[in-house]
């Protein structure tokens, strides 16, 4: 439950801090000390916090920004044990449905550039509502690399298919 609140806090904070940008200004973001390289359509802010996750505790980092009416974000944590990865990914997915009081749809496996064959990566959509009751949709991908789990999301607005494919297609793991 605490992870769900923190992820929600991170998305809301990114929305407030990011303001409203009229266009998408794509930039490559490399996480410090991580294998992940991705594209953001705006300059992301970063927030961290320790939370319970997958039967233990982990530091969760949230990067996010808002551009063209959509909040673009990444949540990541190292769960420290390969046996906890699948549960952590499940917690990240269910937190989205719970936070948006919605339903998960269109769950399907995806392949990320640089992902090892045994890696887990799932793309899905959550249709739900904001706290004010207005409908909202989120496109998401959850994936892992060793003991680190990731959740990339585009929340709200009406992002074009090209923007979504640039964001999710820009996720890649370095060797």
Query: Main sheet: which strands, in order across?
Result: 3-4-5-9-8-7-6
Low-pLDDT sequence parts:
8-21
| Quaternary structure state of the chains depicted | single chain
Query: Can you write the helix and strand succession as a string?
Result: HEEEEEHEEEEHE
The rounded distance between the terminal residues' Cα atoms is: 34 Å
Radius of gyration equals 15 Å
Percent of residues in helical segments? Answer: 10-25%
Count, helices = 3
In this structure, how is the largest beta sheet organized?
Answer: 7 strands, antiparallel
Shape: globular
Mean pLDDT reading = 88
Task: Estimate what percentage of residues fall within beta strands.
Answer: 35-45%
Number of strands: 10
Structural class of the secondary elements? Answer: alpha+beta
Provide structural commentary.
This protein is of the alpha+beta class and 175 residues long. Helix content is 23%, strand content 43%. It contains 3 helices and 10 strands. It has helices at residues 2-18, 85-99, 161-169, and strands spanning 27-30, 36-40, 45-53, 56-67, 70-78, 103-109, 121-129, 135-145, 148-155, 172-173. The chain has a 7-stranded antiparallel sheet, with helices on both faces. A 3-stranded antiparallel sheet has the order 1-2-10. Strand 1 and strand 2 form a beta hairpin. It starts with a helix and ends with a strand.
């Amino acid at each position: 439950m605490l992870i769900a609140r923190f992820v929600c806090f991170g998305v809301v904070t990114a929305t407030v801090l990011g303001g409203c940008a009229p266009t998408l200004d794509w930039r490559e973001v490399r996480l410090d000390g991580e294998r992940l390289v991705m594209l953001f359509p705006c300059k992301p802010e970063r927030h961290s916090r320790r939370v319970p996750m997958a039967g233990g505790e982990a530091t969760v980092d949230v990067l996010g920004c808002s551009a063209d009416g959509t909040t673009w974000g990444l949540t990541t944590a190292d769960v420290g044990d390969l046996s906890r990865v699948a549960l952590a990914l499940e917690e990240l997915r269910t937190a989205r449905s719970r936070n948006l009081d919605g339903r998960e749809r269109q769950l399907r496996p995806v392949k990320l550039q640089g992902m090892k064959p045994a890696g887990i990566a799932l793309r899905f959509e959550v249709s739900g509502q904001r706290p004010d009751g207005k409908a909202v949709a989120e496109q998401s991908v959850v994936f892992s690399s060793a003991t680190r789990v990731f959740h990339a999301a585009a929340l709200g607005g009406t992002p074009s298919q090209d923007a979504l494919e640039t964001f999710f297609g820009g996720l890649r793991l370095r060797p």
